Amino acid sequence: MQTTVAIIGGGLAGLCAARRLNAEGVACVVLEARERLGGRVLSVDDAGAPADDGFDLGPSWFWPHTQHELAALVQALGLATFAQHDEGDVIVERMSRETPWRYRATYQVPQSMRIVGGTGALVAALAASLPSESLRLGTRVTHMTLDGDAAHLTTAGPDGVTGSLVATHVLAALPPRLLAGLTFSPAVDDATLRRWEETATWMAPHAKCFAIYDRPFWREAGLSGTAQSFVGPMGEIHDATTASGKAALFGFLGVGADARASIGEAALTDACVAQLGRLFGPEALQPRATLLKDWAADPCTATPHDRSAGGHPHPSAAPWVTGAWQPRLSLCGSETSATEPGYMAGAIAAAEHAARDVAARVRT
């Protein structure tokens, strides 16, 4: 199979790049290792299955007053938005032997916004705008070989069957650390490979826990659903109720990846629910469902380098590809963005920049 541009990764960056290339009249194919699109953008139902009206296991918020490209994309795709609920008091848990404190909230400026249906609605809308034949799920790229004016990609499916694709250009829309795990011929130079490996993958070390309820009872008590804890296991907690009214609280776990693996998902979830009971009262001890997503345990997101928090990726003007691969390979994952790397806004900015650059090269 041949195409003009092969896009590795069907997350937000990969889909945005494909959308731009289609608009520019450039043929492309998106290769996604998972059996779903979205990457770290994942909205699910109570059972953890991808859903049209779900809870965001990955990124949830955006800020349209500062993230103009993301706001424009949401508007162009006709997606509705709503404000993150922050009305009411905030709970702070300072010590295990001390009763949690309740404080009057100071409202956030700018306001955090969410997408109706979850951020997965953004992925679904982008996918719907693309030719279905250009999206290949369950297709993991394992090798890339440079041959004159083309790159030969070797792929593996979930059944172990290998395939191949020839492209004049490759857009790597995945974290640099994952790209470093591919086999290149000729080999990528050591300095470039080291830079890819040292670039932290945003969200990869982290985990989120959700407790889903029949109603947002904390609001009735004048609470915002926001809490901070120095006790844990969750360090930061927020209201995750959907625009359609599905009530939930979620928190970011403050327990490291190795400790989470040792404790186990069931015990961690129980500890999170117990913490919600301490903070929000007895009703919080009776969720009708719970969800726990450990991104460090997701092989399509994290590598062994990501088991410890590496901070937020920093923007850099240095080229991401040098040497023999420079004319044929471009990086456009969120971590490579010149603005807001790691965030959804960074994914869009990186994808737009790389896709426009490739389209210009194709036309010359």
Describe this protein's structure.
The protein folds into 2 domains: 2-41 and 122-201 and 313-363, 3-Layer(bba) Sandwich (FAD/NAD(P)-binding domain), CATH 3.50.50.60; 76-114 and 205-297, Polyamine Oxidase, Chain A, domain 2, CATH 3.90.660. The protein has helices at residues 12-23, 68-76, 120-128, 176-179, 190-198, 217-220, 257-263, 265-280, 344-363; strands at residues 2-8, 28-31, 43-44, 55-56, 81-83, 89-93, 101-103, 113-115, 135-136, 140-147, 150-156, 162-172, 183-185, 207-213, 223-229, 234-239, 247-253, 289-294, 329-331. The protein is of the alpha/beta class. The mean pLDDT is 95.
Features:
364 residues, alpha/beta, FAD/NAD(P)-binding domain, Polyamine Oxidase, Chain A, domain 2, 2 domains, eight-stranded mixed sheet, seven-stranded mixed sheet, 9 helices, 19 strands, 26% strand, elongated
How are the secondary structure elements laid out?
Layout: E1 2-8, H1 12-23, E2 28-31, E3 43-44, E4 55-56, H2 68-76, E5 81-83, E6 89-93, E7 101-103, E8 113-115, H3 120-128, E9 135-136, E10 140-147, E11 150-156, E12 162-172, H4 176-179, E13 183-185, H5 190-198, E14 207-213, H6 217-220, E15 223-229, E16 234-239, E17 247-253, H7 257-263, H8 265-280, E18 289-294, E19 329-331, H9 344-363
Parallel strand pairs: 1-2, 1-12, 2-9, 6-15, 10-13, 12-19
Antiparallel strand pairs: 3-4, 5-8, 6-7, 10-11, 11-12, 14-17, 14-18, 15-16, 16-17
